[in-house]
Structure prediction request, 212 residues.
Amino acid sequence: MQHSSQLSAPRTKVAYTIEFYPEEGKYHYTGHRNCKVVQMPEETKTNGTTCPVCQRKLTVGVMHRVQQLAARGISNFQFPISNDEFGVRWIKDEDGKRPPFVKLVPLLEIIAEALSSTTASGKVREVFENLVEKFGSEMAVLLQTDTAEIAKLAGPRVAEGVGKVRSGDIVIAPGFDGEYGKVKIWNTEIQNSKLKSQNSTEEKVSEQMGLF
Prediction:
């Protein structure tokens, strides 16, 4: 039985939540890892769930199921987006029934990519600790610190990375069929991959023409 003090005590309310990108999940999109086949929900709707390479059934991703539920009217949420004074991109429930949320990338990962290093690097750890000590916490750095102040301590590249994460200006390769998705702040890796592929194609064409 509850005491009167418990009944009258005000309920705590969640002000907001901080989330990772769901695209990082291993089964976000439909596909076949071994066949290097990955499909967005729209493509699965058009092409079906048969692998075009091996003709077996693709591993269906969660986003395909979400699309199916949305088509049946089970999921019909509206999420207005607004940026605050620090450029943080907040996603809100139009009806106000759910607290707003923001999608972030861990500060260590931002610093590591900015410095072209890894999260285990001593230099990356040093920059991380300096920022947290100066501004109070990782969340304070990611959400409530002017990027100009971050640049003074960690350099313009780290500050730019924090700004890009706040605004959602990042590159995402969604996960599929047991393969984790990748979140990149700069698309250098994707550009290099495309350039490598282009060079390989040009070399093959040149070989066929007898230029090598």
